[in-house]
Design a protein that fits this description.
alpha+beta; three-stranded antiparallel sheet; 1 helix; 3 strands; 24% helix
């Protein structure tokens, strides 16, 4: 049975997905993007900055 996680530190989207799901020792994500935590907007137009924010957000989702 999968375990689903919502991180209170991340933007709470109305979209119907979890920040992180774990099943049989494997983790799955959906919607972890380079967005700001307070309003869900992208951190900038720069892809490198979006990737950095995405990795930070991913760390908080797990």
């Amino acid at each position: 049975m999968p375990t689903h996680h919502f991180s209170p530190a991340l933007y709470q989207s109305a979209a119907p997905f979890y920040h992180f799901a774990e099943h049989a020792g494997t983790g799955f994500t959906a919607g972890i993007i380079g967005q700001r935590r307070d309003d869900g907007l992208l951190v900038s137009d720069d892809v490198a900055e979006q990737c950095e924010a995405m990795m930070t957000n991913l760390g908080d989702a797990a």
